[in-house]
Specification:
The complex is a heterodimer of chains A (313) and B (540). Chain A is mostly helical and 313 residues long. Chain A has 12 helices and no strands. Chain A has a domain of 191 residues: MetI-like (MetI-like fold). Classes of the chains: A mainly alpha (313), B alpha+beta (540).
Chain lengths: 313, 540
Amino acid sequence: MMAYIVRRLLATIPVMAIVGIFVFMLLHLSPGDPAAIIAGDNATEANVAAIRARLGLDRPLYEQFVSWVWQTVRGDLGVSMFSNLPVTTLVMQRAEPTIALALTTLFVAITIAVTLGVLAAWRAGTLVDRVVMGFAVMGFSVPVFVVGYMLVYVFAIQLRWVPVQGYQSIFDGIGPWLHRLILPSVALGLAYVALIARITRASMLEVLAEDYIRTANAKGVGTGRMLLRHALKNAAVPIVTVIGIGVALLISGVVITESVFNLPGVGRLVVDAIARRDYPIIQGVMILFAGVYVLVNLTVDIAYTFLDPRIRY
Amino acid sequence: MRLSRRTAIKGGFASAALVAASIPSRRGDAQPATSRLLRFVPEFDLRILDPIVNTGLVTLQHGYMIYDTLFAMDSTFTPRPQMVGQYAASADGLTHDFTLRDGLKFHDGTPVRAQDCVASIRRWGARDVMGRSMLARTASLVAADERSFRLVLREPYPIVLDALAKISGSPCFIMREREAQTDPNTAVTETIGSGPFRFVREEYRPGDRVVYVRNADYVPRSEPTNGYAGAKIARVERVQWHIIADTTTQVNALVAGEVEIVNTPPLDVLATLRRDPSVKVANIDPQGWMAYIRPNFLYPPFNDVRARQALAYVVNQADYLRVAAGDPANWRECRAFMVCGSPMGSEAGMDAHRGANLERARQLMREAGYNGEPIVVLLPTDNPILTSITEVTINNLRQIGVNVQPAAADLATAFARRARREPPAQGGWHIFHTRSLGVELNNPLTSFPLASPCTRDAQGNLTGWFGWSCDERIEDLRTQWTVAPNAQERRRVAELLQQRAAEFLPFIPLGQMYTPIAHRANVRGLIEMPIPVMWNLSIG
């Protein structure tokens, strides 16, 4: 197992390298000039050229690439062209809201979705099943920003139960922290509820048709115990796979949710950076996202061995 | 120890109760009717902290928070002393003596010295058009002692005080000498000024929050506040800029009382906001913004004045303004190259362009030799105002048989492309649209699209603004305006300049738009000037 983990971790290096090359080339070969944006609308060409020279953007592309790679392998993601702050500082400032949103969303989504999925499978073909699946289709179909604005209108503007926007650190208290994350987590989590609930239902239906479940029923095992201990554990592998895939979707969903609820997270950082062509931020964050995604997949693979002892690496 | 189900459930309820108890009891983030905290939503994020390098509105507002100016414009746009206590000019207008008033201190506690002012003027003069124009005529600029300095000109420059008090682009903000000695193309990252608010670096989070606190050492002038002149009194202890990218969320936060001012609310919600008694919508900038079409003068057909006239003939300003600004309360038709409602504003020479004349436009395009070649129009897709006005032009040009080739891209890409001098078919362009602050265009010297220099750089390229218009007559009139001895003479020259611009058409005016600010009803003391500032504001 350990050899497998080390092998997988080593395999992240070429993956990150490919992502790095791809992102660098894509950015530098696509049009857009950060120097023109820094200089402003009424700048002269001479102003823009001077700023471009100061940023090193007038150097040949291969020189810029080599210098970026050298910086990155030393753990230095560079400095924002606009704020002059190190990219690592900016990412650290923004990491907490994004991690908090992702974790609370996963918690909300998994808790609700697995419950609904199990319920739908247990009551397959009944009204309960249809309602749950209808809810799942709706969750898939309604965009995150629509759900977000609706929740804001009802719970923040009309009822005034929660704030419209903003984030408060968990270090300022768990209550205020949760208070600001409830709506974004629900808005973002809805799509995952739909996704995970459908997979849970399908997987549970398969398992519930197995002989050992019939045997457990015949032995008089209670419904709750039979569903949760005997069926759900054996249905968990596809569910965990979908949760892993969901993390990639989550990264894109986080960007929209952060904008609607004004959470100062990494998603907004990178979107703002793309609009301005702040190359060091875009490159740095993309490398980090790639790393996170690789690690999530590794975690999912390892989780299989705990859920199904037959799986060995 | 074995955890029973009952214990687990009890524990769960207890944890939930604990969390619920720690959730703030106050609803949302609304604050009491009176407060010493002002929360402001700027139009964009504050990324560049140097208002000399970057001329964007948000960086400019940041500049007004922390820096002070030697002179400031009052509400009639007349320059008044601000940091300067005593000022004298020689009878021939060539020698100007400035003495700083008492008690001026930077935020680090050091006194503001004449040397700081001299260095700041020099750096500003390397970037700003009025500064460049003034320094080009300067024989010497030296500090006489710690509190006074002298400017000696080689030739008369009657608008010295107007230049030092200029509002937009890069105002002449006074920095410490050490920052002011930074290369003018390298952004200063230190944020120590002598203005009414101090920047709180520890709380600066780009893309999220910018925090300022009242500068307790600031000594306001004794005169009452008048425009940007007179007393600058910070009436709140703390100003927080909340960076909210999504305009709907900005408005929701204002309505819910989570912020006090939104600098640029979306125009389509203004009517809704006006109906909300807790919110007020105010147009504090009577000159607003002017939208315009900028053709490329380097290539046919728009290097021919007849093609530019055709472009002017396809414009019916109301069509543009309706799609860009909606409610007629938010716009006015205006064909003045130096902005309607400004001292230099006149619509002389533009009578023929009141309303579109497509037949005349078609004929003029033919006369200019246009024969169906593709016309590349830059179409920014992520700026609703520029997108909509560009689409109107595209539609109008197609109506007169022009083969339009829209180059759709985000604003950053369009910005980069408009700097390219290559022929339109090889990555260049024919037409772009933009809008600029009226206060920037109302002065022939600072109006960058009006400027039409025929000077060339070392590579032989024209040195003007993107589009590269070149007209000796306009440049001659701009120079005459700069050295005109008084306001009356400046107005006379401005009238001639308007008439020449109407003939030459360096750009095609599309009218003026007002972008009001929205604020909570309990915010008092808004200064009615083009750039919203935070001094004088109070809550409750």
